[in-house]
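Reagents: none. Just compute today. Penicillin-binding protein activator LpoB.
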Amino acid sequence: MKKTLFIASAISIALLGGCSSKQVVSYGDATAVETTDINFGSTDLQKAANEMTESLTASPIIGSLTENKRPVVFVERIKNKTSEHIDTESITDSISTKVLQSGKFRFVDMSRVEAVKKQLQFQQEGGMVDPSKAIQFGKQIGAEYMLYGNLSSIVKTNKDKKDVYYKFTMRLMDLESGIIEWADETEIRKTREKAKVGW
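Predicted 3D structure written out:
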C-alpha cells in the first residue's frame, strides 16, 4: 500500500512539474505600447526616432538644403546621459534608416571605416585582386553634415511614486562652417505609482 501510494505521488509530481515548465511563445505587435516597467523601452525608442525624423525631413531649412541635391551625412551615435543602460545604437540605427528612406540624404557609415580600410588594403596589397579592378584609396566622398544627439533624464522618487523625465535632443551641423542647420527635441514623461489596495 505504501509502495503504491509512493509511486502515485511520484507520477503526480512528475506530471505537475512537466506542466509547470511548459512555455508558450507567440508574436506580438512590435509597435504596441510597451509598459513592462518605467525604464526607457521600445515605445520610447520608436517615439523618439519617429518624431526626430519627421521634424528633420519636414523642416523648411532642410527642404532648401536638399532641393537640388542629396547631401552626404554621417550620423554620430546618440550619447546616453541617463543613469540607465540604454542601447543608443538602436536609436541611432532607427533614425539613420528613416532619414535615408526619406530620399533627402546620403550617408557615410563611420562605424565601418576600419573594415573598409582593411578591404582596400587587401585589394591593393594582398596580391590576389586584379590591380585594374581594385578600388583605389582616396576615392571616397566625405560627409558634408553631421547628425548627432543626446538622451538625458531626470528621476524623482518618493515612497509612493517614481517619475522619470526623458529629453532627447538632435542637431544637424554643417561640417565646413560649423553652423547648426537644424535642431529639435522631444520629451517623454513616465510615472509609476504604488497600487492602492482595496479600491
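The mean pLDDT is 83.
Action item: order primers for follow-up constructs.
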